[in-house]
Write a structure and sequence with these properties.
The chain is an alpha+beta fold. It folds into three domains: about 5-165, 2-Layer Sandwich (Beta-Lactamase), CATH 3.30.450.20; about 215-310, Helix Hairpins (Orthogonal Bundle); about 315-465, Heat Shock Protein 90 (2-Layer Sandwich), CATH 3.30.565.10. It is built from 14 helices and twelve strands. It starts with a helix and ends with a helix. Mean pLDDT is about 85; it is low at about 420-425 and about 465-468.
């Protein structure tokens, strides 16, 4: 984040943006208006200069020969009649002045190139004898056919005075409009940010003890309703996470307390009186079982923590899944034979995945199915494959699961029959591990229970999709 974004508030940044935009717009408007006004006065002056120059041309055309100075003065007298502050001068081809209705020399005009038409001229503005003048230099034919030049100019002090006052009025007006607009913009921004301030106050009331509070999207504008809905969804996820964390903390405390209590009691009993080596060895073996159980639990919890934080990297390889299932069935043969449970496998599929993790997931599913299956029944593993996915299904016959039990089955330390039960050897993390492994492979796992048949179904992407 830039330093300006940290220092300036949202309101300040919006005001700066609006104020800067208005300044640019008003400066542009001021320049355009000023240019148009100046252009209007220039065109007006040029038109008047054209009228005077045309009058002079017409009066000179009445002479066939060059008249005397007195006759020329009499003929040209009043040519500028009707126009205040209009001056003109005639010059011969050598640049000598023939006639002038004023004492102005109009030298700056004579330094420009003379043209035939007023429309082709570029008026020159200059100061002389405390006057502001605008004039042009024209070519013309003097009486007798001799070429000459005519300088025509007019006093523009009135225009300059008007433009000076106009400039002050224009820029002061634009400045006042800018200030008023900025103040109104500040009020509009304040009103516009009002819903955000109200939302902020409502959000500040949501604490870890009141995660059940939700914002009402109907009480905000349409632009903020989507934000409110997203925020409510986020709070729902946070609330669910806190609830899981609370249950997890309680479960782990219970799971750790039981073996630790057993270890303490067995040690106290062993120390109450002298015993022979066989009795001490039996106590140590019993303690070792509890230590191994605690070690496995901690190891599983650490692995789950790594998966939650994305610290587990998959080592992908291609293999035939049916071979892995057959190996696991043979390995678990003794456990299944004790309960007269058969393990069958049908179908085969080719998988590209982390072989060790897939073996672990299938081992957990099979051991779970064997522990919860009715004696004398069969645990079935069904494998199938399509062009887009691989499907693994483990089915056993046992006690049916309610919908509530199914919804919690993959939570850590959850046991379907009794959350606090320790009748089985499991730690309550097996199915949570299976779910994490499946999700690491971009797959999904689900459970279904119908008429005593419990089915765990894993769907994984095909090898080419997972590799991509």
């Amino acid at each position: 984040m830039r330093l300006a974004d940290k220092i300036l508030s949202l309101r300040s940044r919006m005001l700066l943006l609006v104020g800067g935009t208005l300044i640019l717009c008003f400066v542009l408007v001021g320049v355009l208006v000023d240019r148009q006004v100046k252009q209007h006065f220039t065109e007006q002056d040029v038109a008047e200069l054209a009228i005077v120059s045309q009058a002079v041309r017409e009066r000179l055309a009445s002479f066939e020969q060059m008249p005397s100075t007195a006759q020329l003065a009499q003929a040209l007298s009043g040519a500028e009649s009707g126009f205040h502050g209009m001056y003109f001068s005639l010059y011969d081809k050598r640049g000598q002045e023939i006639y002038s209705n004023s004492a102005l020399t109009q030298i700056p005009v004579l330094r420009t190139r003379a043209v035939d038409k007023v429309e082709d001229a570029q008026p020159v503005v200059w100061n002389e004898q405390s006057e502001h003048l605008r004039g042009i230099l024209l070519t013309l034919s003097l009486p007798g056919g001799e070429p000459g030049e005519m300088a025509v100019s007019r006093n523009i002090d009135f225009h300059q005075t008007f433009l000076g006052g106009f400039h002050r009025t224009l820029w002061l007006t634009l400045l006042m409009i800018w200030v008023i607009t900025l103040l109104m913009g500040a009020m509009a921004i304040r009103l516009g940010l009002g819903p955000l301030h109200r939302l902020s106050r409502q959000i500040s009331g949501i604490t870890t003890e009141r995660l059940d509070l939700r914002l009402d999207p109907k009480q905000v504008s349409r632009e903020l309703s989507e934000l409110v809905v997203s925020f409510n969804q986020m709070i729902s996820e946070v609330e669910l996470g806190f609830e899981r964390l609370k249950h997890f903390s309680a479960d782990i405390a219970h799971e750790l307390r039981t073996p630790l209590t057993v270890l303490a009691m067995q040690t106290q009993v062993a120390l109450n009186q002298a015993r022979n080596s066989d009795e001490y060895r039996e106590v140590l073996y019993s303690n070792l079982e509890e230590y191994e159980r605690l070690t496995a639990m901690v190891k599983d919890m650490l692995w789950l923590a790594k998966t939650d934080n994305g610290l587990v990297a998959l080592e992908l390889e291609s293999f035939e899944l049916a071979d892995e299932v057959d190996k696991l069935a043979e390995y678990m043969g003794m456990l299944s034979e004790d309960r007269d449970i058969r393990i069958s496998r049908s179908g085969q599929c080719f998988l590209q995945a982390d072989r060790g993790l897939i073996q672990r997931a299938l081992s957990n599913l099979l051991s779970n199915a064997i522990r919860h299956a009715r004696e004398g029944t069969e645990v079935s593993v069904l494998l199938s494959q399509t062009s887009s996915q691989v499907q693994i299904e483990v089915i056993n016959l046992g006690d049916s699961l309610t919908e509530e039990q199914q919804s919690h089955l993959f939570e850590r330390f959850y046991r379907a029959n009794d959350v606090r039960s320790r009748r089985t050897e499991g730690t309550g993390l097996g199915l949570a591990l299976v779910k994490s492994i499946v999700e690491l492979h971009q797959g999904k796992i689900s459970v279904a229970s119908e008429q005593g048949a419990i089915s765990f179904k894993i769907v994984l992407p095909a090898a080419r999709l997972l590799a991509a």
